[in-house]
Amino acid sequence: MIGRVASLVTRRIVEGCGSGHLGLEFAARAGRDEHTRQVLTPMRRDQREGAARSIAEVAERTGVRPAVDLHQAALILHCLTNGLVNEHIANPEAVDAEAVERALTAVLTCLLPPPPSDDPPRS
Question: BetI-type transcriptional repressor C-terminal domain location, by residue (predicted)?
Fold first, then answer.
């Protein structure tokens, strides 16, 4: 499941550079302009809430317990995806689809570790 999610998000990051550029512009402007910040803040909050709901759904379907609070996990993923968009825009040769997918897979695996095995530990 983590591989499918990482692949889907990777495609959106790599193929959606136009929206990535727009996101960068809005974030930069929000730092200087209160009106833009008032528009952007609820949008970003909604994105994080959507991520939290998605994480909860994956956890429920798979029986995995997130390693951190859902809202913390959502913040981590939100920041990671924004950062990956920025890095891909700035250096698409180095931060290509493979690099993006590896980063997402690593973080998702840490946030949604497999459930502990019922087998007794081996000595």
Answer: 23-111
